[in-house]
Description:
It is a single chain. This protein has about 170 residues and is mainly α. The protein has helices at about 5-10, 20-30, 35-50, 75-85, 95-105, 110-135, 140-165, 165-174; strands at about 55-60, 65-70. It folds into two domains: about 5-85, Orthogonal Bundle (Arc Repressor Mutant, subunit A); about 95-174. It is built from eight helices and two strands; from the N terminus they run H-H-H-E-E-H-H-H-H-H. Strand 1 and strand 2 (about 65-70) form a beta hairpin. The longest helix has 26 residues, at about 140-165. This is Helix-turn-helix transcriptional regulator. It holds the Pfam family PadR.
Amino acid sequence: MSVSRTLLALLESTPRHGYDLKRAHDDLFRADRPLAYGQVYATLARLLKNGLVTAEGTAAGEGPDRKLYAITDAGVSDIDAWLTSPEKPSEYLQNTLYTKVVLALLSDRNADQVLDAQRREHLTAMRQYTRRKESGDLADQLICDHALFHLEADLRWLDLTAARLAELREQVAR
C-alpha cells in the first residue's frame, strides 16, 4: 500500500494535521501495524516538497499548535491517476514454497513434510482470519475475505502439488 497516496487521498475531504491523518489511517484501514508518527511527518514533508500538499497554517490542540496540510491541484491529479490505474496482480511465478519443494526433492528430503508444514501454517492463518472476520466490522470482514481467498488458492496449489509430487520428483531427478 502506498502510504503517501493514502495520506494524500485522506486530505481531499479537508485539511488535516499529521496526528489526525495517522488516526484516520489507522481507524480506516485497521492496520495491524499502525503508522508511526515519524513516517507520517516524513511522508508529509515529501508531499510538501513535491508540491502535492501545502501547509496551511496551524490548528490549536491540547499540545503545541499543529501544522495543517491541504491537498493541491497537482495532488488531486496524482490521486486521480493512482486510483484509476489498476494494480498488477501479485507475481506467483517464482514462489519460495515451490523452490523449497524442488530443493527438498533434489536433496532427497521429504517434500511431503514441506507441503504438510505449509498446509498447517495456512490453516492456522485461516482460523485467525475467520475469528477476526466474525468479530470485526465490514472493513475487517472484507480485508479478511481477501486474505482467506488467497489462502484457499494456496491450499488448492498445495494439494495439487502433493498429488503430482511423484511426477515432479522424476522431472527433478532428470
